[in-house]
Amino acid sequence: MTAFELVGESGWNNVVSVIKSSKKSEDDEELEEVEEEEEEEEEEEEEKGEEKGEEMEEDVDDEKSWEKVDNEKEEMESEITIQPPQVPPVDQSTSMRNLRESLSKINSAFSVSGEIYVDKNEPLVVFFDTDKDNKQSKGGAHRMEFPLTDSTIINKLVEACSPASFGFKTETVLNLEYRQALKIDSSNFLTSFDVYRNGIVDVISKTLVSNAPVCAELHKLNVYGPGGFFKPHVDTPLTTDMFGSLVVCLPAKFEGGVLRVTKDELTKRFDWGRTCIDENNGDQYVQWVAFFSDCPHDITPVTSGHRITLTYNLYKRSPNEVLSPQIDVQDFSFYRELKASLMNPNFFNSGAIFGFHCQHSYQSVEFDMLKGNDMVVFQAAVHCGLNVYLKSIVDGYGDSFIGNVSEEGNGGQYESKDKFIEESFDVVRVRDDRITWFGSRAGKKSHAYLHYGNEASISHVYSSVVLVVEVPSFKQRIKALTVAE
């Protein structure tokens, strides 16, 4: 069993109790004394010009060396052989600096794109009927083939469409100042384009969700005519297992209408109007991109022609499969750096509690829905044998908390409501100085767009999430790390 499977709410309660305790543990006091004596020893070694080396003290009174610690371990666990590092372990500040640097270099994909050639002998077909929401359009079914042989069919497609609304918080809104587009619901059209047969779903699975099985559900057909656009928004999570969106652009002449997908400071542009048709030989291509649905994205105004797209919602078919055997966390430098730090006796010798701010927002606080960099951190911690907790950040009452807050209750007997929350529920403050934090809270910039979605949502909304990692003392964790090897 993996570490996270062994941790229940009782484990989180223990973590909260440790964090809330204002009294320093005896291990903390011993660690401070050990560090002071180590500093004195290092100064003496420099003055005498002796060979560099560091000794780890297990107890202040008897000053055990690395070799004594190893011998004691062999007596306690004869089947386990612990080899001391070949080089003197670095100090804690250096380990922390290296760990933070490796964390900043994690660069998991938040989108994946491609193109597919459209064979004239095997045209891509779209059958569409009048959108039932459009009372003005005329009835009748129509057939639309790509490559287009009759451009007038686009006029019939536009006629069959109805205005595309969007979601603002829990309401469905039609606001032409925020979005100008047309749509046909999936119940009113069919297409011969198969995202499975064309290999798109396989690429999404490998690139975005570590080979987890993916289901692509056809959602809508959208048309952006001249002047059409969509301001920054995120795609509304319709279920707890929805992780992304797929946009397929059909080959039709248009200009503008650039899709821009943003994650943190990085923005990817998809100018399909320039690439869907090869001007030299007339070859036509279907362009596509899949991305995590919490990434803000927008569509610039179309200046000419019609931008025609198929949109799909992406789901994990087997969301409970968190640690895939095909995932090799040793490919990630962060895992190697974390493991090296944990093997270092100078690194939080008495243990610590780490808080990793997740870089994506989530509608479901579940390990199996972690995305991108967040999944890398989770995998690394679990494969190092650490207990991991996934908790939402709850804002309110003048502060932010992580943990289990389900109801307000009666806070009248407390000096403040935030004091009531902290003492009444299994929560801790985000700004608690007993948590060693990594990264910054996700989506402070993107959260401005979380109120705007492609659909309205009542039951599922995005929130900021943190990974809380329990780091045992060196004496406790060294056994697990050695066994893992």
UniProtKB/TrEMBL annotation:
UniProt feature, compositional bias: Acidic residues: 27-62
Keyword Glycoprotein: no
One Pfam family here: 2OG-FeII_Oxy_3
InterPro entries: Oxoglu/Fe-dep_dioxygenase_dom, Pro_4_hyd_alph_FE2OG_OXY
Keywords: Iron, Metal-binding, Oxidoreductase
Region of interest (Disordered), ranges: 20-93
GO MF, any single term: oxidoreductase activity
Highest taxon of source: Eukaryota
Keyword Cell inner membrane in record: no
TM stretches of this protein: none
Residue span(s) of domain Fe2OG dioxygenase: 215-316
Family of this protein: Belongs to the iron/ascorbate-dependent oxidoreductase family.
Protein name: Fe2OG dioxygenase domain-containing protein
Organism: Rhizoclosmatium globosum
